Amino acid sequence: EMGGHAHYMLKEIREQPDTVLNACRGRLVREEGSSRLGGLNMTARQLRRVRRVVFAACGTSWHAALVGEYLIERLAHLPVEVEYASEFRYRNAPLDDRTLVFVLSQSGETADTLGALREAKRRGQPTLAIVNTVGSTIAREADGGVYLHAGLEVGVASTKAFSAQVAVLTLLALHLGRLRGLSFSEGTAVLKALEAVPSLIGEALKAEPAIEAAAERVAQARSVLYLGRDIHFPVALEGALKLKEISYIHAEGYPTAEMKHGPIALIDVHTPSVFVAPRGPLHAKTLSNIEEVRARRGPVVSVGLADDDELTRLSDHVLPIPDAPDVVQPLLAVVPLQLLAYHVARIKGCDIDKPRNLAKSVTVE
Ligand code: M6R
């Protein structure tokens, strides 16, 4: 069943080129420089009326939603709020008829996410779901939505579902953008970037030997910081969650520039920092943050471009990813972080597919 892979998690990480392909299949509309998401059951006119988007989710799905916030802000210039489902369901969040509420869930059975959906419905809000499991409770109760088509995910640590969610959110942001200020050529650039992702993930997967070397060092740590900014901040959060779930090493994700407002106090020779640092407009700032960590003798692991000499000089380990337009970079940058967590857990002898205290779907509050 695991097709020669040592664990389901590894199989699912390696499936991600296909995952993205399947999430996008039949949904790219090249002649319009846009996407088609028929399951939303909403007309262009209805979607154009939307003034605000709310996402509610838990765990990894919440991280994917955070990437969605950056994407929708960038491509459609709409305000987005990302809520923990467990908070949303008991808050009195302002909603109106121009707010679009989405819940995101791999399993479609997460109790808090279902609670959030029901609360939004109770308040008369049309609700949409981004779900993997066909026919799940959330899929059935939502008014419309988008399936991920990621196939069964067995590993408790979610990997391919995250990639499928981010791919679908890119399609959603593109669609909302094309109903607003995003031009045909800008939309086409996003489509092309997305179409290139499966083979680029394939390249990122080839870096496993470098990742294993970094894993040897991270496996010695008691605590690890994950830092990323802009669209990579949620990727840092996701990398940290993967590490803590399966290797039981404490890890925290932070926006890179927040480091100096507290977490920098933790840095010492035993506390590695993992920087998500592909090139981008803020790269020089990230490099100077890395220098600050080095000045305190903190080990540095970076996810970045193989030909980035400055990053290579400043890092103990570079986990290479190929270059790509920044809207699709999270789909590449998350891959080495999933593999890093996997190899750390393997080195430590942990039960990777069934980590302690966790279940695949959390059906209690
Ligand atoms: O099935 P869901 O996407 O609703 O699950 C949400 C979280 O329980 C889930 O992502 C959890 O955080 C995973 N174990 C993360 O790897």
TrEMBL record:
<keyword id="KW-0808">Transferase</keyword>
<feature type="domain" description="SIS">
    <location>
        <begin position="43"/>
        <end position="182"/>
    </location>
</feature>
<keyword id="KW-0315">Glutamine amidotransferase</keyword>
<keyword id="KW-0677">Repeat</keyword>
<feature type="domain" description="SIS">
    <location>
        <begin position="214"/>
        <end position="355"/>
    </location>
</feature>
<comment type="subunit">
    <text>Homodimer.</text>
</comment>
<comment type="function">
    <text>Catalyzes the first step in hexosamine metabolism, converting fructose-6P into glucosamine-6P using glutamine as a nitrogen source.</text>
</comment>
<keyword id="KW-0032">Aminotransferase</keyword>
<keyword id="KW-0963">Cytoplasm</keyword>
<dbReference type="GO" id="GO:0004360">
    <property type="term" value="F:glutamine-fructose-6-phosphate transaminase (isomerizing) activity"/>
</dbReference>
<feature type="active site" description="For Fru-6P isomerization activity">
    <location>
        <position position="360"/>
    </location>
</feature>
<protein>
    <recommendedName>
        <fullName>Glutamine--fructose-6-phosphate aminotransferase [isomerizing]</fullName>
        <ecNumber>2.6.1.16</ecNumber>
    </recommendedName>
</protein>
